[in-house]
Design goal:
The chain starts with a helix and ends with a strand. It has two domains: about 50 residues; about 120 residues, Immunoglobulin-like (Sandwich). With about 170 residues, the chain is of the alpha+beta class. Strand 7 and strand 8 form a beta hairpin. The strands form two sheets. Strands 1-2-6-5 form a four-stranded antiparallel β-sheet. Strands 4-3-7-8 form a four-stranded antiparallel β-sheet, with no helix packed on it.
Length: about 170
């Protein structure tokens, strides 16, 4: 008589333990699967995002002397960047921009972050209304004073981590 009662009791305990284990493990498995899908999507975005710095120059006159050509009161450096990937890049102002003399560059904040402090950068699109594939972005780095001549370094990092770098002389 004891054997059927013990067997029934053990069966109930086994079902309760199996339910508890399932309730503890299943959410973790689901979260892991969601995390893997999220990582896969981020990697896919990075693989489809690509930029190329096409050209960079300072606000120089024909003889190579700094001059406020656009009469905005600043001495500007212009950088043209092409979206050569297959995705739209946004938000542009969340990019990191590093600029300065070779070996002595710093992160330049976007105007929305820097306010009226110098240096800061702004952007405009040359041939589209958003930074879509094949569109060219014109970045203007604003300085309150003239930069020295020499070799300069620029590095851009998109919001999803894709980078390009460029050296040029002024």
């Amino acid at each position: 008589m004891d054997k059927p009662i013990i067997s029934t009791f053990m069966l109930i305990v086994g079902i309760v333990i199996a339910t508890l284990v399932f309730n503890a493990v299943y959410p973790a498995v689901v979260r892991s699967g969601d995390a893997l899908v999220n990582i896969k999507n981020r990697i896919d975005d990075r693989m489809r995002t690509k930029i190329a710095i096409a050209h960079a120059t300072g606000e120089l006159d024909g003889s190579g002397t700094w001059q406020d050509i656009n009469a905005d009161g600043d001495f500007d450096v212009y950088v043209w960047v092409k979206n050569v990937g297959t995705l739209r890049i946004a938000p542009v102002e969340r990019m990191d921009l590093f600029f300065g003399p070779e070996g002595n560059f710093v992160r330049i904040p976007h105007q929305s972050e820097a306010g009226s402090a110098y240096p800061h950068w702004t952007w405009s699109l040359e041939n589209d209304t958003a930074w879509n594939p094949s569109a060219t972005l014109k970045i203007t780095i604003h300085y309150s004073s003239i930069l020295s001549s020499g070799r300069y370094f620029i590095k851009l990092i998109t919001p999803n981590g894709v980078t390009d770098r460029h050296y040029f002389g002024m």
